[in-house]
Amino acid sequence: MAKWYGEIGYSKTVETKPGYWEEKIYARNYYGDAMNNYYRRQSSGESINRNIKYDVTLSILADPRLIENCSNIIYAEYMGTKWQVDKIDASQYPRLLLTIGEVYTEDEQT
């Protein structure tokens, strides 16, 4: 199990003007452990370049802010790159287990 330190981003819907709502991304740095570190290449029929998908689980000691927003987590930084969070396991409170997948791009906000 390797030690991990990186940024976790989550989105919230905020009212920017009366009646106007938009998604805002908040990010904060956390410590944890990286487990199950391996990757695989994926290819789709329409893609020439293959996509890399990581299967890494990050075990993070979460603060109350992250616990409150765990359903809104969208990315975690790993090895200098932002990765989409595919799965969140909150069953080991106060730890969160985040499984990351494909590379996250800012255009893919949910």
Descriptive overview:
- There is one protein chain.
- This protein is mainly β and 110 residues long.
- The protein has one helix spanning 64-68; strands spanning 2-17, 20-42, 51-61, 73-78, 81-89, 95-103.
- Strands 1-2-3-6-5-4 form a 6-stranded antiparallel beta barrel.
- The longest helix has 5 residues, at 64-68.
- The mean pLDDT is 86.
Structure characteristics:
1 helix, 5% helix, mainly beta, six-stranded antiparallel beta barrel
How large a portion of the residues is in β-strands, by DSSP E?
A: over 45%
Radius of gyration computed on alpha carbons: 15 Å
> What number of domains?
1
Element-by-element helix/strand order? EEEHEEE
Helical fraction equals under 10%
Mean pLDDT: 86
Tally of extended strands? 6
Residue runs with pLDDT of under 50 for 5 or more positions = none
Choose one word for the global shape: globular
Question: How many helix segments?
Answer: 1
Determine the structural class based on helices, strands and strand pairing.
mainly beta
- The largest beta-sheet arranges its strands as 1-2-3-6-5-4
